[in-house]
Amino acid sequence: LAAAYLLLDKFSYKLLGYLGISTVSWIGIMFVLLGATRNLEKRQKEEYGNTDKYKNWVASTWSGWMLPADSSSTSGTEPNEIT
What we know:
- This protein is mostly helical.
- The protein contains three helices and no strands.
- The mean pLDDT is about 80.
């Protein structure tokens, strides 16, 4: 807010456009990172989920925020049919 007050006389739609693009870009990057976290956690669980070392590590750490799992996904063994 302080920066907006200082730039009050220099405000332009160009600045508003830059702020809008920056916000949309930030949202996109966060979406990619949250999806990557979900996929990494899934792969690690599939690979190491039955080991005691992995279970202890999961119990003592937090994976961070991640997107919810896709409810529309299948078991992953059959490819999608193209019609």
